Structure formats: C-alpha cells, structure tokens
Amino acid sequence: MNCFYSYLKEENDDDSFFYTFPTNQNLLFTVYFKSYDYQDKLENYPNLLQNGYAFGFMPIDIIPNVRKRKDSLVFPTIYEIMQDFISEKGNETTLLYHCDTLDKKHSYRDKLFNNWEKLIENSNLVRHSLKVQLGVDENNHLEYVYLGFITSKNNPFIDKIREEFDAFQIDLISQKQ
Amino acid sequence: MAVKKIVISPNNTSAMAFFDDLNRKKAEMYKKIEENAVVKTASKVLEKKTNK
Questions:
Q1: Is A11 on the interface with B (CB under 8 A)?
Q2: What single DSSP character describes residue A64?
Q3: How many Cβ pairs within 8 Å bridge chains A and B?
Q4: Which in A47, A85, A118, A128 has the greatest CB count within 10 A?
Q5: pLDDT, tens only, A43-94
C-alpha cells in the first residue's frame, strides 16, 4: 500500500490524537484515537485497557449532495495512520472500535471493515470483531452494533487480549441486578 | 469455535446502558471534530478551491 492521501496530525492535552486528510472527492476525514474511553467498563481487562485507545473516523462532506465514487485511497490512508499511531505508541497498543447507531450507517461501516480486513490480511495488523443484536429500530428492522479491536500481530499480549475480549462478551450478556 | 453474534435482551439494562454510553461518547467526539479549528479551516479552504 504505497499510495495514500497526505495527512496532518494533532495531539490534544487529554492524550487524544486527530489525523486529518482531504480526499479527491471533497471529503475531509478525521481519524481519532482517544485513551481511557472504555475504562469504566473495562477496568477488569487490563490488557485491553492499559494500552487501549478508542479508534474511529468521521468524514465531513465539503460539497454535500454530490454522489461520491468508491475511493481506493481512503483505506490505505487510514491504514498508514493506524501504522503511524501504533509505531509511536508501541506494539502493545490496542485500537478499540464501535460502529455506532447514530447515523444508521453502522452496518455499512462493518462491511467496510470486513472488506478492509481482506486487504490487511498480509499486513502486520489483526482485527477481532463482534456483532451485537440490540433489538429492533422504529421500522421494525433488527438493530446491530459492532464492537472490535485492531492491534499489531507483534503485540506481546495478543493472547491475553483475545481472552479478555471473550470474557467481556460474557460480561455483556450477564444481567446485573 | 468463535463467537459470531450476541443478542442483548431489552431487559439487560446494564448492557443497554453501556451501548447508550458508547453512543453518547461518540457523539461528543464527532462534535469535538466539527469544532476543531484545523477541520474548520480545512473545510473553508477546500470549499473555496472547489468553487473556483
């Protein structure tokens, strides 16, 4: 993956990082990494949390209402950004993602992630994903969210991280009284 | 074997609260990005370029 968009990187006081890049199709992407977002829930999962960052991205449409074509440079750019972040923070870094339900495009995003997984098969990253059915939306369609993590194949804690993610799934389905 | 899907019952209030909280945090992050000075400047520059 040699070709990608040029990007700009910012660091905030709260240990969050923002990478921004414009595309040829007038989208302005921001990729973010924010620490401690999951701390309250994952306090029992030190390997997931200790070096865990909430990871996500947001495109802003500069010229709305113009149909966008598939852009083959977006993934390589986000991939470069993930590599940049992990190389700075170390192989122990775990990127925790959540495809949200805010804009009803979470299913689309998971498909995007699945396509990307095929592309990163030969890279030094690994992804683990979970589909969660939450109920039905206002149109009586099943509503899903997607949770997962991405980390380096060279993460020394990879087995423990997988174990903790499995334990987290059990925690989710255990009804608290 | 790998877990492919989990289903949360509507009466699992702790799990529902967790997902609500995730959505809230993400909405806060999106707002922060929209208000970011670099994003605002870049949007203006790109808009001008496109309209030329």
A1: no
A2: T
A3: 97
A4: A47
A5: 788 888 888 999 999 998 887 777 778 888 998 899 999 999 999 999 999 9
Q: Structural domain boundaries of chain A? A: 8-172
Nearest residue, CB atoms, A133 vs list B8, B11, B50:
B8
Residue spans of the domains in chain B: they are 17-51
Residue A63's pLDDT is 78
pLDDT of residue A36: 66
Which residues in chain B have their CB less than 8 angstroms from residue A135's CB?
Answer: 8, 10
Query: Domain A8-172 belongs to what topology?
Result: Aminopeptidase (3.40.630)
Q: Does A133 touch chain B (CB under 8 A)?
A: yes
H-type helices in chain B, by residue range? 13-35, 37-51
Distance from CA of B8 to the nearest CA of A (A): 5
Strand partners, A57: A31
**Structure tokens, A33:** 């990494």
The pLDDT tens digits of the residues spanning B28-52 come to 999 999 998 888 888 888 888 777 6
Q: What token pair was written down for A72? A: 């083959």
User: Is A113 in a helix, a strand, or coil?
Assistant: helix
Task: Classify each residue of A102-117 as buried b or exposed e, where b means 16 or more C-beta atoms within 10 Å of its C-beta.
Answer: eeeebbebbeebeebb
Which pLDDT tens digit goes with each residue over A101-121?
656 666 666 676 677 777 777
